[in-house]
Every structure is written in C-alpha cells, then in structure tokens.
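Students often ask what a 'structure token' actually looks like in practice. Rather than answer in the abstract, let us consider DUF6193 family natural product biosynthesis protein, a protein of 248 residues. Its sequence is given first.
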Amino acid sequence: MCREPDPAVLYPDVAVHGSLAAALQAEAAAQGMSLPLTVTSSDPLRHARITSVVPHRSSSFVTAWWHERKWSFSGSSNDRLMISGSTNDIRVLPRVIRGWAEGASLDEISKTATFDLLTGRFEVPDNNPADVIASEWQCLLKDADDADWPQYRALIESAHAEPKLRRLYPYTSHWALGFAEKPEGPNFTPPFVSISSPRGTGNYTIRERSNGPALHYVATSSEAITIAVDRIPAELLQTTSEHPAQDS
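Now compare that with the structural description of the same chain:
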C-alpha cells in the first residue's frame, strides 16, 4: 500500500511557516502585496481558503498535492468553477490569488499566471439562466477542444451548432452528453437523450439516460444530433422557443 507522504517532508518550506496560508502570505509580502487567506484547520499545510471582495466569488482555494510537490488553485463564482490550474512554483500564486480576491476579470487573472487557468466559463453575477447556459456551453467547447478526442469534439461542436439544443443546459456524465431545461436541470428535467462518443473507430451511441440501454448507433455526430433534436420533449421545445438561443 502506498502511504501518504508527511506534508512537512514534501513541503518543508511551508511547514516552517506553520500553514500554507502563512507561507503564501510570506511569499506575497516578499513581492510587496498582502493576501486575504485563511488557514484550513483540518489540513493547514496543504489547504488555504481565499476570501474575495466580490460576493459571488466563493469556494476558492489553494490546495497542495499529496504525492507530488505541486499546488492547485481553484476559484468558483456562484458555485460554478471559473478558474482552475496547477503549478509547481509557489512564487507565481500570489498575483493570481490577489487578482481573484480583488475582483480582477478572468482574462486579467489569466494574464498574470504562468499556467493555464481558464475553464471557458464566463462569470454570471446575477445567475441569469440564459447566460449560465451560454457560459456552460463555452466550458464544454473548451474542454472538447483540449481533449485528445476528435469524435467527442465533433459531438460538442455539432450540438452547440443546433439552436434547439444550444438553448438547453448541457452536461456530461461519464463523457456522455445530456441536456436539461435549466442549470439546475439535470436533477429535475426528465432525461430524454444521452449521447456517447466513440474513440477511434465505432459509432455514437444514443440512450435515454447515460446508464440506460442503447437505442441507436450512428456513424456521425450530425446524425446523433438529429436524433437528439427529435427526442426533445414538446414542453422543452416550447420553453426554448420562448427563450431564443444567444449567439456565441
């Protein structure tokens, strides 16, 4: 069994300060800045919480890895992950943390980082459902573009190109694409289609739900999307026609 390393051994420079929050604050002070960080009492050497002046920026953390000397930064807005990335250089974190805490834009924060941070989402301070849906589509498109999976990328791009689907909230479960009426929808919208992509050769698989039996096998993403559109319930079609898809 692989035992978890003692964080004081993997992060002796952090242990000297007593907590990750204190170590980051010391690094920030060396760079001429201060940071609004609090210690996580349950794991002080590997976890620190960030407080932002922007009310909807919550659940923001710096976390040290367990088996490798590395730190991850994550920042959420209205409980949706906006920025996320990892670095093995603690010196680059203070500027990223300060930008997030002081309300800098996502693009501004990304420009201060030496590692990839953007998730593709854009912030929606008022939680407007149509904007949240558009933000989630942008996240899926970035995720698909970054993935080494041409068939999955083709599926996401084909789905986004279809206005009737673009008005719905997209989500994935085990890489299968599904749709809901609203951002909270996966738990409340009756499932009507779930599409799985092949890897390499093979067909797209259409199910009613991600763990349900296969209903159709088709060769292309466009065929899969045609079937998905045909399966949209009438009440969802009415809802989407009342709220036109945003251009993006």
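One point worth highlighting: The mean pLDDT is 93. Ask yourself how you might have guessed this from the sequence alone, and why that guess would often be unreliable.
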